UniProtKB/TrEMBL annotation:
Keyword presence, Phosphoprotein: yes
Organism: Agrilutibacter niabensis
Keyword Phosphoprotein in annotation: yes
Top-level taxon: Bacteria
Gene3D superfamilies in the cross-refs: 3.40.50.2300
Modified positions (4-aspartylphosphate) in chain numbering: D52
Transmembrane segments annotated in the record for this chain: none
Pfam families named among the record's database cross-references: Response_reg (PF00072)
Stated name of the protein: Twitching motility two-component system response regulator PilH
Length: 121
């Protein structure tokens, strides 16, 4: 069982993603914006982070960059889970240190497959 941090400012998205993570048998940690996500990630050192992009305080691109540049957290893979579906967004997200990128809305099986794929790398 892995510990997966879900960072999203939408309570309904947070709940939906948490349900998928727990259904896969993992423990879900949550944060409601990018700044809180970086703080929880640094404190809890989860096995994986599912990061929204469009959030207040610190957006997901900034939070991903912070996690991937910090020696204490740079080993933790980040999957960007976002409504931003342009190729430039995808490229920029990967340049910030994300290991994968999935756009909303996504199917439960697509997210589950991506979690398994990234955690097995």
């Amino acid at each position: 069982m892995a510990r997966i941090l879900i960072v999203d400012d939408s309570p309904s998205q947070l709940m939906g993603i948490r349900r998928i993570v727990e259904k896969l048998g993992h423990e879900a940690l949550t944060a409601e914006d990018g700044a809180a996500g970086v703080e929880v990630c640094t404190r809890e050192l989860p096995d994986l982070v599912l990061m929204d992009v469009v959030m207040p305080n610190l957006n997901g691109f900034q939070a991903t960059r912070s996690i991937s540049k910090n020696p204490a957290t740079q080993h933790i893979p980040v999957i960007l889970v976002t409504t931003k579906d342009q190729d430039t967004d995808r490229v920029w997200g990967m340049r910030q240190g994300a290991k994968a990128y999935i756009t909303k809305p996504f199917s439960e099986s697509d997210l589950a497959d991506m979690i398994v794929q990234v955690m097995n790398k």
